[in-house]
Amino acid sequence: MSGLTLDQLRTVPCGQCGAPAGEPCTSHQGTRVRRNDVHQARTKTYQEAQR
After folding, report:
1. Whole-model pTM?
2. What is the pLDDT of residues 11-42, one digit of tens each?
3. CA–CA gap between residue 26 and residue 29 (Å, rounded)
4. Which stretches does the entry tag as region Disordered (predicted)?
5. Which has the higher per-residue pLDDT, 6 or 41?
6. 42-45, long-range: CB within 8 Å, 24+ apart, which pairs?
7. For 13-27, b where at least 16 C-beta lie within 10 A, e where not — what string?
8. Which residues are CB-contacts of 25 (< 8 A; sequence separation ≥ 6)?
9. Strand partners, 33
10. Fewer Cβ atoms within 10 Å of its own Cβ: the N or the C terminal residue of the chain?
11. What is the predicted pLDDT for the residue at 5?
């Protein structure tokens, strides 16, 4: 699954890399976009918001 289709990417910011909602997570101090997934912290934040 492409990271661009993940609900957590569209709806919550990433607490690990600081990417805002709607923007992909980054790796390597923000120099490389994570194209296929998001940080686990972002997924956890999204799951908690769904409860």
Report:
1. 0.77
2. 999 999 999 999 999 987 888 998 888 899 99
3. 7
4. 18-51
5. 41
6. 42/8, 42/9, 42/12, 42/13, 42/14, 42/15, 42/16, 43/8, 45/8, 45/12, 45/13, 45/14, 45/15
7. bbebbebeeeebbbe
8. 3, 9, 14, 16, 17, 19, 33, 34, 37, 38, 39, 42
9. 26
10. C
11. 58
Give the Cα separation of 30 and 44 in Å (integer): 20
Rounded to whole angstroms, the Cα distance separating 28 from 46 reads: 23
Task: DSSP for the chain, please give it.
Answer: --GGG-HHHHHS--TTT-PPTTS--EETTTTEE-SS---HHHHHHHHHHT-
